[in-house]
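General statements about sequence and structure are easier to judge against a single worked case. In the encoding step, the backbone of a single protein was reduced to a row of integers, each denoting a local shape. The record that follows shows the chain in one-letter code together with its fold in token form.
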Amino acid sequence: MKVFRKDLILRGVVYFCGIITISVLVFMLGYICIKGVPYLNSSLFSLKYTSENCSVIPALVNTILITLLALLVSVPLGVGSAIYLVEYAKKDNKFVKVVRMTTETLTGIPSIIYGLFGMLLFVGFFKWGYSILAGSFTVAIMILPTIMRTTEEALLAVPDSYREGSFGLGAGKLRTVFRIVLPSAVSGILSGIILAIGRVVGETAALIYTAGTVAQIPANVFGSGRTLAIHMYVLSSEGLHTNQAFATAVVLLIMVVGINALAGLIAKKVRHS
């Protein structure tokens, strides 16, 4: 009887927490949509930004550019490092322990610290100035620990029997990793990449110090430009275009949902291929 009561209480607590979480999420999304959707008009999607239209297109293009460049740098490094740590490094290697401790520490560092580092290194030392390239490299360093840790956990979750079966059939180490282990861990790896994309898309502090706040599409990667998150921050902080800031938030939400859906489709295709 006591066990039944405990199970009932725990189930009630879980349901209560779930309902509260869903309610907060629905309220937040509903509030943003109610405040922002009425102001989604054609002028908001003009190619050129002015103080009258507050166009999101330059910020949207810059967000996509910075996200792609950051992933181009961080994904190969993060996935490659995780493969080495799990598949090739010795289990009791002190270097591996130091790397894991370092990545866990870097994950918890505030983004403004990365922004100051990027400003000193990429903007100042490398003379890139406030640019898309400087912002991309800064956020690439920022999301690298997340991709490393999630990929490492995904690889560790693959049963050793998969590897043993592949070796038993005569496959080598490299072939086993790329044909057996990685496809089995692709869902976990993509989850880490999605988390990284979400952090890049929503980042403001690090990019203000490195990419700048210019509302334009730069001619090249050495030009300055603001992202959607910075665009929303600037509009709301000015206090003159609060409605357009909510509309920008709606665009940002749609973009994140679209990225998540696309990543899910890619994961399914890779898993069934």
About this structure: The chain has eleven helices and no strands. The CA atoms of residues 112 and 205 lie 5 Å apart. The domain at 40-272 is CATH 1.10.3720.10 (MetI-like fold).
